[in-house]
């Protein structure tokens, strides 16, 4: 048995997994309010104490995906005062502990995802042994790579969400011109993320929002998407159109930079909510418009990850060491 975790700024999932099979099987998964606990050690202690299955089992190993940079054996969370120290968890509980960046953890789930856990945007043809790339817009934007190294997939984190946003059209150039005085350098996450959608919303609304979206609402990004999909406000429709095209173009940039002939996966919380917009055409057109390499990117499979617990599953896969290439 092993413990896997997906540690986010507001919510943390901890799961007990049986790793006898190629794909680790969850025995019990619990959700915790991250800030309800002082640190990860206290949270694990509660999980083990309160859950009979976890309590009765010898834990062999553990792996945690963390929404924040991991340096050596510790990680700090962006925006919250939570420090995660693998050495301390190991010294208290006695099992080996691995920390991964959250996108790195999610990448490890990709080789074990079942067909009903993904939505195919472009069928393509996966090259055997090809690299795989993962892009995931949620609150922020994360990107990770999955390299096939001697038959084993090894994930690699990036900070590509903070690379420069590449405007391709007159409209996107106008967006960059509008944002630069406000924010300085416009990074990709400034446009392609939940927070980015709010920024794009202010750009596309020269008149009051007809859907009445309050940008201070914690769910504002989802409200804009819904208003756009239900065609309730021209400014929201415009915002989602711009967002979807930019998302497709950046997924294509990632595909080129990583040589992702094994496929590109779109994870994160936003994609499943705007699946209708992602399948409508502009996302894949922007992805494939990579002259002179259109034929290369058109061959790459592109899939949306529908499993909301892919990050947790990937942490379990990594802990189990079952990451053989297929
Ligand atoms: Zn609107």
Distinctive features:
14 strands, six-stranded mixed β-sheet, single chain, five-stranded mixed β-sheet, 24% strand, 38% helix, Hexokinase, domain 1, 2 domains, alpha/beta, 326 residues
Describe this entry's structure for a reader:
The structure is a single chain. This protein has helices spanning 40-50, 52-55, 86-93, 102-109, 170-183, 194-204, 220-229, 234-258, 270-273, 275-279, 282-288, 294-298, 310-320, and strands spanning 2-7, 11-18, 25-33, 61-66, 70-71, 74-76, 83-85, 97-101, 118-122, 132-137, 141-149, 152-157, 263-267, 302-305. The radius of gyration is 20 Å and the shape is globular. Strand 10 and strand 11 (141-149) form a beta hairpin. Mean pLDDT is 94; it is low at 322-326. Helix 4 (102-109) packs across helix 13, helix 7 (220-229) packs across helix 8 (234-258) and helix 8 (234-258) runs parallel beside helix 11. The strands form 3 sheets. The protein has a 6-stranded mixed β-sheet with strand order 9-14-13-10-11-12, with helices on both faces. Strands 3-2-1-4-8 form a 5-stranded mixed β-sheet, sandwiched between helices. The chain folds into 2 domains: 2-102 and 309-325, ATPase, nucleotide binding domain (Nucleotidyltransferase, domain 5, 2-Layer Sandwich), CATH 3.30.420.40; 114-306, Hexokinase, domain 1, CATH 3.40.367.20. The chain has 326 residues and is of the alpha/beta class. It is built from 13 helices and 14 strands. 38% of the residues lie in helices and 24% in strands. The site of zinc ion has 9 residues, from helix 8. Zinc ion (ZN) binds next to helix 8.
